[in-house]
Amino acid sequence: MEEIIAKYLADEMSQVERKEFEKELLSDEQLQEELQESTMAIELGSSKNDDNNSFDVESAWLKTSKRITIEKTITPVQPKYSFLKIAATLLIIAALGYLALQQTEVFQNEQFEVLSSDNTVKEFELPDGSQLILNANSEISFKDGFGEEHRTLTLIGGANFDVERNESLPFVIITNNSELEVLGTSFEVMAYDNFPVEVNVSSGTVRFKATKTKSEPVVLEAGYMARLSADGTQLQRGKIQNENYAAWWTRKLIFEGTPLNEAIKDLSKTYWVEFEVSENLQNCTLDMNVDGATLEQALDILQATYPSMTITTDKENHIKLDGKICNN
Is the pTM of this model over 0.70? Predict the structure, then answer.
């Protein structure tokens, strides 16, 4: 390292080498200390030189490294990178440190409250009186002043909102690639990473827009839903076709002649399990009602509906369905 520092001080680095060295200098405190020590040694050496204040780099090198033998001769030169230039580099380091400290202080002054659910469904009351049911593995966050100065929050995951009406403070939900705005209503939002954002409105009106595109927002009334593609570019609006969308928190599921492959999607979302269905059951349809049941109880109802079906939990949160061929 001493040789590299001497090369830097003697201005013998290429432009690429110099950029790499100075980049490392900004993040390596030990290197900064070594450079400062070498600089002091050079200044001491240069003070003994002639009146034109040039300094002998070879002498400076000997002062900064007594253990390494130089294989080439370094001739005395007037350096392009003087002590002032080195000091400027160190000043840049200090400035960057100050800016980082200032950014940290700003971040620390921004007080956020975070509500999360881990692996379970949880209920919360927000500071404005709105009711929130947070789906498993979900999180919302909002800054201080929620309900008084603003009603804006960020959602990652799924949630059902029953919003307290306040016309002077619209309720705004920010998700990945989208934004929702309401005054007072009941609706559900599913906004997990790398999945489409889906909104289902139970009552009132929701204004839903894609933030990645310049398309006009859509207005959703009760009984309507919208889905925004995972990449945030395709927004579709329509009537709610599947009333089981709220089953993850109501625990109410109704299947009437529903294809088994569709039914297990609702069961998976409700109970956070993965189903594997054998080919024999691909043509099965399901007539079954579940109300407030646990996963085990729901599987018992499924088993009673299809006595010939074999239900096996081969590993955690993974259930296999097998049995005789369905012809219905």
Answer: no
